[in-house]
Specification:
This protein has 209 residues and is an alpha+beta fold. The chain contains 5 helices and 9 strands. It has 2 domains: 84 residues, GMP Synthetase, Chain A, domain 3 (2-Layer Sandwich); 75 residues, SH3 type barrels (Roll), CATH 2.30.30.100. Helix content is 26%, strand content 32%.
């Protein structure tokens, strides 16, 4: 029996993820021959703590093992938080990305802006860069696409101040010289590094008899 579809896995884990205080951001199933990797992406306003993620990984593994949908198909389970360079498609994504730099596509222009507080259906954006930062408020309905950017230099403290800082539990762009360092810090303090940053990797399930 093959691994269930992404939709079926989402149905199986959504209630469990929600009960643990997380949002289910995505499910990705990658096949390599007879073996599959099932990656469960979760997040919350406070980030993803190591102990909570490990507990959730064990519970999801037990759920999968008891489900007839999985049978004896071999797979590896990973519970992971989304990466820094993620698209912003929901209000919660904007709220959690406060303080981060994003490329924002509007109807008539594309701007690089640091994300500020979300207020209702409007988002505050810090534009102008390090030299002359200022705040611009934009309705979310006017944003066609937005993608958080990986930063290779430290932003000005004024930029981050105008953006209102970051939520408790999230990595600040001021805490490291580059986002590559921030990724390393986050994986060390929140989720241990396995095959990728910010990942709890469970043992292989359903080994062939």
């Amino acid at each position: 029996m093959s691994i269930p579809s992404r939709e079926r896995i989402s149905e199986l884990v959504s209630d469990l993820v929600e009960r643990q205080g997380f949002d289910l951001e995505d499910v990705v199933v990658t096949s390599a021959g007879s073996h599959s990797v099932v990656r469960i992406m979760i997040d919350s306003d406070r980030g993803v703590g190591l102990d909570a993620a490990a507990d959730l990984s064990r519970e999801i593994g037990e759920l999968f093992d008891s489900s007839a949908s999985f049978g004896e198909a071999p797979y590896t389970l990973e519970v992971t938080s989304p990466g820094i360079d993620r698209p912003l498609t929901e209000q919660r994504h904007w709220r959690r990305a406060q303080g981060r730099l994003a490329k924002v596509e509007l109807a008539d222009e594309t701007i690089d802006a640091r994300i500020g507080p979300l207020s209702g259906d409007d988002i505050a954006l810090v534009v102008g860069g390090k030299r002359a930062p200022s705040v611009r408020t934009v309705p979310l309905s006017e944003i066609r696409r937005a993608l958080v950017q990986v930063e290779f230099s430290r932003p000005s403290s004024r930029e981050v101040e105008l953006a209102g800082g970051v939520l408790d539990g999230r990595v600040s762009p001021l805490d490291a010289d580059t986002d590559l360092d921030a990724l390393a810090d986050e994986s060390a303090t929140q989720l241990p590094s396995a095959e990728s940053d910010d990942t709890i990797e469970d043992t292989t399930k359903g080994q062939d008899k």
